[in-house]
Amino acid sequence: xxxxxxxxxxxxxxxxxxxxxxxLVVLSVIVAIVxxxxxxxxxxxxxxxxxxxxxxxxxxxxxWFAATFILSLGIFTMHFTGMLxxxxxxxxxxxxxxxxxxxxVMFVFVGLGxxxxxxxxxxxxxxxLMVAIYFALGLGLxxxxxxxxxxxxxxxxxxxxxxxxxxxxxxxGFVASMFVLRSLHxxxxxxxxxxxxx
Length: 198
Fold this sequence. Notes:
By secondary structure, the chain is mainly alpha-helical.
């Protein structure tokens, strides 16, 4: 039922006082930057390998796995560190199985996105848009599946409009980053990564 998931009426239960651990928030940002930088360089290496070989080789799949794993791990770690930074004044535990499922789902969608870069021809705007949508869907599913792993003496609800906004922001953010990456495809990978992070 949607009423079990979304806040569809005025909540009469007392709200928890929440705060964030600043150190962990900063750490999650650093993790995001490092993984974005490394992932961009690995994708650039994948593109070089794909465009210089006549067939899909083992090295192509190595770079695909490396880029997918680093980006997935980086996004997952950033998200989970951010969750750990969220303090509600009581003990919180996380379901290990659900947490691992959230990572696997993220890995699958990031992998689909990275696989687009294995096309031998020049990548079109539609290709970059596909990558952005895959990444955004992966991030959205990672977040909301990951939140289901959240165990505390409290009931978790989502505001419907904020929920929709979070998905839209994720899509627009990845679309913007992919088109920045596309505009820099002839630049050195490190410059691509730095510009993309900024």
